[in-house]
Amino acid sequence: MASGFSQWGNDLYTGRRSYGIVRHRRAFFVASAIAVLLSVLVVGFKGFDLGIEFRGGSQFVVSDVSDTDEQIALDAVAGVAPDEVPRVSSLGSDAVRVQTEKLDTHEVTEVTSALADGYGVDEAEVGYSYIGPSWGQDVSSSALRALVIFLAFVAVVMSLYFRSWRMAASALVALFHDVIITAGVYALIGWEVTPATVIGFLTILGYSVYDTVVVFDKVRENTKGILDQTRSTYAERANLAINQTLVRSINTSVVALLPVASILFIGAFVLGAGTLRDIALALFIGIIVGAYSSIYIATPFEVMLREREPKISAHTAKVTAAREKAAQASGADDQDAALAAAGATGGAQLVPGSHQGNKAQPRRRRR
Q1: Do the bridges between strand 126-131 and strand 49-50 make them parallel or antiparallel, or are there none, so unpaired?
Q2: Which CATH number belongs to the domain containing residue 164 in this structure?
Q3: Of 111, 131, 151, which residue sits at a domain end?
Q4: Cβ distance 90 to 60 under 8 Å?
Q5: How many Cβ atoms from other residues are within 10 Å of residue 183's Cβ?
Q6: 275, 277, 284, 279: which is closest to 256 by C-alpha?
Q7: For residues 165 and 216, is the Cβ–Cβ distance under 8 A?
Q8: pTM, whole model, 2 decimals?
């Protein structure tokens, strides 16, 4: 199986096997547009489940418990503040986290005592902290500022490195594609948005840019001096670059997904490490979407922008005309060869348009 995968990669790199990704770019654009639209609708109508770091409130953590039954915490809070709807989650196998709206000093004392009694631990095992909403606002503004700076930095660096604003614009389109779809899936699942989630979103941006730069670097290499020849078009050379880096993109994505999947499925679901699942989910979705966009969105979009250039458009028309002329000449040569073969066999073969095919054959008498 490994040798087959290696042979498949070699065939893609040499051009013996090729997938018309650029040629079918409209289908990929439509699929991505639908995914982005659905993600926007999910975020708009359902919204995010913001964590306590963003909305503020009181938080209790009960440690060294033998039973992590969440109903115990719900009953403890309801006995003190009946109108409060707490958020309860398990932290591993021996801790429980309880989050509520802001409680006064008296309510905090009573909830702490109720949680300790409910879980059968000492009150010293119940930790309390209050997080103000201003802290969450600072995190949100800092994350937004970091995102804007990152996107501006990507645009400038890629424009200078590739000497093409079209590649920079295509990379930014891919980035927005990745962020919006990842946000939509995250909102659809309904997990809390924490600072770890924000870190995960910023991390997938870097991964997506890295994968896109690798493909663009191969595109630049393949399309160097494209106007000096008439064997292939810019789109064909760019499509070859995608196929040549396809195996690398798959390998990079799989290697990156393995530890993230371990954190998400084993750490969060099996071992109950809830503090890791936020960033793990964002990374897991983002890596998959980023690998897709670097192959099916970034380069095809860049080719679409390139083909609008007069020089590239004229070159594409020139290559197409040369191929049509060569095909017509090849067809004429094949017809002449067929006629010569028919004459050499004394009319044994019937060639359309030849006089041999119109001669009547003598009939034999029946005895």
Answers
A1: unpaired
A2: 1.20.1640.10
A3: 131
A4: no
A5: 21
A6: 284
A7: no
A8: 0.77
Measure the CA–CA gap between 306 and 160, rounded to whole angstroms: 17
**Residues 6 or more apart whose Cβ sits within 8 Å of residue 19:** 12, 239, 242, 243, 246
Same-domain pairing of 108 and 121: yes
- CA pair distance 13, 342, nearest whole angstrom: 43
Number of structural domains (the chain) is 2
Report H helices in the chain.
Answer: 2-14, 25-45, 52-55, 70-80, 105-119, 133-162, 165-189, 195-222, 234-244, 246-261, 274-293, 299-306, 310-344
pLDDT band at 352 (very low <50, low <70, confident <90, very high): very low
CA dist 209 and 290 (Å) reads 8
Using the 3D structure, point to which of 112, 131, 150 is the last residue of a domain: 131
pLDDT digits (tens, 9 = 90+) for 232-271: 899 999 999 999 888 888 888 888 888 888 888 776 666 5
Contact 169, 151 (CB under 8 A): no
Amino acid of residue 132: G
Element (H, E) at 50: strand 49-50
